[in-house]
Amino acid sequence: MGIRRRTDPDAGRRALLQCLACALLLPRPSRAQGAAVAKARARGATRVDVRACGARGDGRHDDTDAFRAAIAALPPAGGTVRVPAGDYLLDPVRGVRLRSRMHLRMDPGARLLARPNAAARAYVLEARDVHDVEISGGQIVGERDGHLGTTGEWGHGLMIRGATAVTVRDLHVARCWGDGLSIGGSKAADGRPTPSRDIVVTRVRSIGNRRQGLTIGRSRHVRVSDCEFADTGGTLPGCGIDVEPDPGDVARDIVIARCAIRGNRGAGIQLYRRSFAVTVRDCVIEANRGHGVLAIGAEDCRIVGNAIRRNALGGIALRPGARGITVSLNEFAGNGRVGAARAWRRQIAVSGRARQVRIADDNRVVD
Questions:
Q1: Is the pLDDT of residue 198 over 70?
Q2: pLDDT digits (tens, 9 = 90+) for 99-136
């Protein structure tokens, strides 16, 4: 690609000093504006521009150090890092780690371009063990099409681990080697997991990623709304959304609402073991190669008010270990080999080892 890495050892230090000076000169929001911002996610009023910290945004020069310097320039009270329109090449192997009490505010024309690499694990943005973070606007473009290796499945656009009070909104994530977005827990020094808590994902589009559009792992109180997860595929599971916590902890209190989940190579939505109290409501789940919704070992979940249509393996499948699942007010059309005129019960597959399943009579088939 004709891209050369920076070799100046003092470049990062100079960028940081430049940022600190810039942060003092940028205009501050009014007290009323600050109160409105603090109500969403707590942070200070300081604002830093990544271009003032050395970012070029030309799509050719590595801007990773400039982003890191901009974040480091925020005071302990935090603040906002602004990313103006432009193409910012970032190295996912080093990554950009966000800090507590910050807003990464990208202009609509800002794109974060992942530098091609061969790493099994690499993240463009990472929010690990932080609190009160907001990420908004712009795009993350993964390096799936230029990936230099063949192994691994963890090349994510945004990784959230062990974080509390995080909002992700108005973001477009595409073409990642792994997941567009991944939410889960981190491990403490004693090995015990720290789940993520109070995570909001809204008005996000996650398109054409290789492993998952969105993974929800060890977490509590996650809200996903008004999003699109489409065209995922390339390695298993290939779901639009996969709620699948690792062993040692659970995912609990998850709501997925008013989302479009379509064209994924696996299931539209998978609810896997150790997933509790997940609600899927008012979504359009269509044209996925697996089931529209697949529940394996999930418990106390509600699938309510969704349009579930033209999914290759069937509308809803409740597999062994599923317990306490409610299916109500859904509309089905042409899932699996069942035509649209057939009874809706034929579009729901229930294993004999699923327990306490309630399938209401208010589900229906539409033409």
A1: yes
A2: 999 999 999 999 999 999 999 999 999 999 999 999 99
First to last CA, the chain: 51
Give the tokens for residue 37: 């911002």
Whether 1 has a pLDDT exceeding 50, the answer reads no
pLDDT in tens, 299-321: 999 999 999 999 999 999 999 99
Residue 27's CB: how many other CB atoms inside 10 A?
6
Going 56 to 63 to 3 to 145, the CA torsion angle's sign is negative
Sort strands 269-271 and 239-243 into parallel, antiparallel or unpaired.
parallel
| Residue written as token pair 């602004």 | 82
Closest CA to 306 of 325, 279, 324, 272: 279
Q: Which residues contact 268 (CB under 8 A, 6 or more apart)?
A: 239, 240, 241, 261, 262, 285, 286, 288, 290, 291, 292, 293, 308, 311
The CATH code that applies to domain 82-266 is: 2.160.20.10
Task: List the domain boundaries for the chain.
Answer: 82-266
- The tokens for 332 are 């089905």
* CB-count exposure of residue 14 (10 Å: 0-12, 13-18, 19+): middle
Question: Quick one: which of 103, 122, 119, 216 has its CA closest to 165?
Answer: 103
Distance of alpha carbon 322 from alpha carbon 356, whole angstroms = 8
Which tokens sit at 64? 């990773």
- With residue 284 as reference, give the H or E element that holds it: strand 284-286
